[in-house]
Amino acid sequence: MPHRLPPLAALRAFEAAARLGRMTAAADELSVSPGAISRQVRQLEDHLGLPLFDGSKARPTLTAAARTLQPVLTTAFQQIADTVRALGDAHQGPLDVACFSTFTVKWLIPRLFDFHAQHPGIEVRLRTTDTGTDAAREGCDLLITAEEATGTPRDAATALPLFAERLGPVLSPALAARAGVLRTPADLARQPLLHTRARRSAWATWAAAAGADWPEAAAAAGPVYEHYYFTLEAAVRGLGIAMAPWHLVVDDVQAGRLLAPFGFAASGYDYLALRRTGAAHPRLDVFSAWLVAQACAMPSPLSAQP
């Protein structure tokens, strides 16, 4: 006779608790109480005749048996979810698209009206991620992200190249009027500089790419904002000069809300869209084609002018 498997609910509860590291986090993910998770884990331990967690309830640790079982269950549940979703979502239901938060606000949402106008029957649901590298693991149909440019082509069926990132300093017309003529990077360094916490090296990256002589002390000067969107809004309001990717400020530059006196230089990163693999997905094909067309239609940035 085949070996009797443990109850599916017990396996699901253990996988979530082991992957997330806390019973409470597993309870939140599965929409049950922490007590229910604990009971399901104990049921699985009784079935296996093995302990799966050591340590205290506040700081549980995985046993050797748990470390063997968890990745197998995680892969299996992901494969089940992908297959069920591919079968049910190929021709109906919303598209889930994940990308950086500032990319969502400054680039994708301003263009999304065009997609809705062309394809009113396809709903696009947006979510944000800062670390995603795989659409399936993010639980989405399409993941828009940036990767260091390597020159090695990706699988054309799952990775869609969008554009190379280019960086450049931007400031408001009001601040430019107060600052006077900006001829060299040294002139910039004497002005208030804005930084983003997740990308403190952006000024140095631009200087190296543009061949500019950049004072090291300037890298530490000026306020630091938690998100790129905050940094760009501060620049629009005249609080300082921001180092910004072209795709995030193209609309502001074209509208005259920001100036780019030194143009933009390649940062060494490429933006691409990673598709969820699986069965045929006509709606995802439509959105992917539209996204690539929007990237191609984006105006070319000014060249660096150090």
Task: Write up this protein.
The protein is an alpha/beta fold and about 300 residues long. The protein folds into three domains: about 10-90, Orthogonal Bundle (Arc Repressor Mutant, subunit A); about 95-160 and about 270-295, D-Maltodextrin-Binding Protein, domain 2 (3-Layer(aba) Sandwich), CATH 3.40.190; about 165-265, 3-Layer(aba) Sandwich (D-Maltodextrin-Binding Protein, domain 2). Helix content is about 45%, strand content about 20%. It is built from twelve helices and ten strands. It has helices at about 10-20, 25-30, 35-50, 65-90, 100-120, 135-140, 175-180, 185-190, 200-210, 230-235, 245-255, 280-295, and strands at about 55, 60, 95-100, 125-130, 140-150, 160-170, 195, 225, 240-245, 265-275. The strands form two sheets. The chain has an eight-stranded mixed sheet. A hairpin with a 4-residue loop joins strand 1 (about 55) and strand 2. Helix 1 (about 10-20) crosses helix 3 (about 35-50) and helix 2 crosses helix 3 (about 35-50). The longest helix has 26 residues, at about 65-90. The N and C termini lie far apart (about 75 Å). About 30% of the residues are buried. It comes from Acidovorax soli. Belongs to the LysR transcriptional regulatory family. Pfam families: HTH_1, LysR_substrate. This is DNA-binding transcriptional LysR family regulator. Keywords: DNA-binding, Transcription, Transcription regulation.
